[in-house]
Every structure is written in C-alpha cells, then in structure tokens.
C-alpha cells in the first residue's frame, strides 16, 4: 500500500450498505472519512467542516430516478463552498445525468455498483486536484495515457484536457468547437484512445469533403445495384466504426436533408444502406467537430436544433493559439525536435529574438500554421539555433497583389493565399471560393506550405 494520503472525506448516501462499504475502503487511504445518511444534514456539515472531497449520491430514495435531488444538493454544497470537490455516485445507466452533473460543477462521478480500484482512483484524483494541482509536474497527465502527444499546459488547454479525460469513459456524444488547425481532430483521437473503445476503430469522416451525391453511400454504405457504379455491397463509415468511435468533422457544413438522415441514424442507432430497406444496428460513439458558429446556424434554421441537441451532450471549445500564448513556445520546441529528427538536421534551439516573434505572431492558421512554419524553418536552417529569418521567411506573395508573373505554381499559390486571407483562414469557405474540395485544398496548402 502506498503512503496514506491526508484528506477529509464526506460520503452522503441513504443506503447504509453503500456507506459502510465505501467508508471501509476509503478509510485505509484517507485521514478522515465521515458519512451521513440524511442529505438534509449537508448544509450543516459543509458549513461547519472542511471536507476535501464529498462523495454524493445522485438518487436519494425520495426521488429515485431523476437525480434531481442529487443536483439540488450539489448546488447547495457549491453555494457554501464553491471550490468543493464533489464526486457523484450514480447508478449504471445514468451516465448522461452524471455528465450533466459535471457540467453543473461536480468534479467527477463513479458508477454503482463500483469497482474499488476505480472509486479509490477517482477519489484520490479529486483530492489531488483540490489540494495539489500546483504541485503536479508540467506535462498534462492525459498525454501519455492516450499515447497522443498533446502539447499545451495553458490554463485553457488544461481545462480542455481535463474535460476530455472525464468524458472519455462516458460514451457521451462530444462536440468539439474551434478554428481550423486548433487540434480538433487530435483531441477527438485522444478522447477515443482514453475511452473503453480505445482498441476499436476510430473512423474520421471529413463531411466537408464528401459530395452530396456520395454522402449517404459513404456514411451508410450501399447494396449491389443501388446505383450504376454499385457493383457490390459496400459498408459505410458507420459500420466501419462498429464498437469504436466515429468522428464527423465539419458537421456544420452538411445540408438540411442530410442533417435529417443523420438524425434518424443517431436516433435509431441503426443505418440503412442505400438501396436496402433493412436497418442494421450500429454501436458507435459519436464525436463531431466544426469551426462554424453552430448555435448561430441553428438560430438561422440552417442547422437542425434537434440534431444539435443530439450531438452536443458535451461541448469542448478549443481556444485559438493566439488566446493561449503560453503554449506557443512549447509547441514550437516540440515541432523543432520532431522535424530536426525527421530531416536529420542539427538545429536544436530557438533564438531569443525568435521566441519573442513567435509569441507576438497571431497564428490565424493556429497550430497547423505553426507546425508548417517550424517544418520549413528546420529544413532551411543552417546552424544549431533557429533565427527569425528561418521562420518568418519574407514571402513575396504576402506583399504583392495577385498577378505576379506567369509561373503556374506561383500563381496557384498566390490565388490560394488570397482566398485563405479573404476567408480568414476558413478552409471550407476558401475551398468553396476556389471551387475545390476541402481535401484538394488541404493537399495544396501542404504542398505550398501555406
Ligand atoms: N496540442 C497539440 N500538440 C501537438 N500538436 C498539435 C496540437 N494540436 C494540434 N496539433 C497538430 O496540429 C495539426 C492540426 O491539428 P488538427 O488537424 O487536429 O486540427 P483541426 O482543428 O482538426 O483542423 P481542421 O479544422 O482544419 O480540420 C495536426 O498536425 C496536429 O497533429
């Protein structure tokens, strides 16, 4: 057994067996474990004693299934002690409710019947969070757990990673919002890896890159003969994601008729292939993302409100890089090492003047832009230290108006740069403007390092 932690715990549950069992377990690991059967005593207890973590039942017998009473008590606790760490105890099957409790300010939740290890780990994590956040080592713990190296220890990123970690195991639908290049895809993979579905498929679908005609067959599959080119049965992306996670990127870009089709699939948890009339059940966890203001789209009736409610059980907002400047240098250093090793370059540090310029830059293309800038700089670098001129290469197209000459590639680069500028870095809109698919535009952005 590890060194016992300090810490004062309160358990509130009206089931005496639960109280006894939980107390027996927690007593071995915490300095003091109090328990209370009557929730009416909560205001008195939290006012007069300082508990580090409160384990609170969501369903007292007065109100067996709605969890409403649990929410009320959570509110009362937070009124008295806004910084209280409250872990909700909830019945299996009430996960959505527990997730709502987290939105309402709970720290975490544990499902009943519980596994001792899980209960202990959750209580210990809540305790450390409450008392020792500052002592934690710098890298966010989630990084190594998922195997995905998410760089960022700014307060806003810590909060994003914290929410991601907590929702990962719940199977709740997640909507990730953020500008292009802020890491939405990466975060979706991270959540998948941390979830119980981590070893099952993660299927990413860029809805902005699928043409309207292929939408249904791509997502739901088709049967042989459904249309001229359908020479054999084909499974869709939902089926490929069976037991795993489907990531629907650019969800804000699909037309109203397809929103209706998607909603039917999500409601019925079953897909019907094009050309078939048999619905096949699918078990997938849904993560969606968009860079658009989806609430506004819903208000303008361009996005179905009922679909929005389905997909946004949990919303995670990824802040743009310019709003988490603390992350710029760690990210730049990360990419420096990645590309120095990839291209076998001797460069290993950033010059002080470059550090300043990196921090001052606005990064409209967010982390993707920084990543490309660092890749290009590493390739062009000549010494051990990267200088501003390596990263902020004077790019003639930025200074000149469109018609610079007759070099085709240069003209293409020019046009794309102009379109990206005009659309404020919004890839979907720029692709539309240029008459390209998003995928085709991405390829060109990569090619020209834009
Ligand atoms: N926190 C991070 N740490 C390290 N790399 C990151 C981080 N966030 C994003 N990246 C990298 O930046 C690039 C862009 O990230 P990603 O594709 O996840 O962004 P996105 O928001 O999904 O972009 P888009 O909206 O354009 O599809 C990727 O190469 C990703 O690996």
From TrEMBL:
Residue ranges occupied by any Response regulatory domain in the UniProt entry: 8-127
Keywords of the record: ATP-binding, DNA-binding, Nucleotide-binding, Phosphoprotein, Transcription, Transcription regulation
Annotated SMART domains: AAA, REC
A biological process term (GO) from this entry: phosphorelay signal transduction system
CDD domains: AAA (cd00009), REC (cd00156)
Residues modified to 4-aspartylphosphate: 57
Molecular function (Gene Ontology), one example: sequence-specific DNA binding
InterPro entries with a match to the protein in the record: AAA+_ATPase, AAA_lid_NorR, CheY-like_superfamily, Homeodomain-like_sf, HTH_Fis, P-loop_NTPase, Sig_transdc_resp-reg_receiver, Sigma_54_int
Gene3D superfamilies membership: 1.10.8.60, 3.40.50.2300, Homeodomain-like, P-loop containing nucleotide triphosphate hydrolases
Keyword Transcription regulation applies: yes
Domain named Sigma-54 factor interaction: residues: 150-379
SUPFAM superfamilies xref list: CheY-like, Homeodomain-like, P-loop containing nucleoside triphosphate hydrolases
PANTHER family per UniProt: ALGINATE BIOSYNTHESIS TRANSCRIPTIONAL REGULATORY PROTEIN ALGB, TRANSCRIPTIONAL REGULATORY PROTEIN
Full protein name: Response regulator
Species whose genome carries this gene: Chitinophaga tropicalis
